[in-house]
Design brief:
The protein has 1 helix and 8 strands. The protein is mainly β. It has one domain.
């Protein structure tokens, strides 16, 4: 699955502000571990988690730097709520990795949709980001016995 979107490069000031904002969010609370055992691998081969996520935009924002965003839809065959971790690479014009970002969408009901976004926090100002690519999506069912987790890369 090739999901990439071109972007305009962010300003250096926006990158610094975005980095500070990202660190604040990461340490204050943006989801997290519910204490469950994530080693028990569950599978839903008919609905892999990477097919539940779209990348709709990769854009430079004045105060946030480059942000990737889209929608996640819980289309698993499970009737449980699911949590998703979405990982994104931010690339320069030559296709080189500038930085990566990730986000978590928690407690998405079966059949439900939710927006997601993550920023290119900590990206150097001399490497303008022009492309965003989803590299991995994992889906976790925290209410399911055994805390099943499923993963998939964005290249399926």
């Amino acid at each position: 699955m090739d999901q990439s979107v071109k972007a305009r490069g962010p300003s250096p000031v926006a990158l610094v502000v975005a980095a500070l904002l990202a660190m604040t969010i990461a340490f204050v609370g943006c989801g997290g571990d519910d204490g469950g055992d994530l080693s028990d691998a569950g599978t839903d081969t008919g609905n892999p988690p990477n097919e539940d996520v779209t990348l709709d935009a990769c854009e430079a924002r004045e105060l946030q730097g480059t942000v990737a965003s889209g929608v996640v839809s819980n289309s698993s065959s499970s009737s449980y709520k699911a949590s998703y971790q979405i990982e994104v690479d931010f690339l320069d014009a030559a296709g080189n990795l500038v930085t990566n970002g990730w986000t978590v969408v928690d407690d998405l009901p079966a059949g439900g949709d939710a927006p997601w976004e993550t920023g290119a926090f900590g990206a150097p100002s001399d490497a303008p980001i022009v492309d965003c690519t989803i590299t991995n999506v994992s889906r976790h069912f925290p209410d399911q016995a055994g805390d099943a987790i499923e993963g998939g890369n964005g290249d399926s």
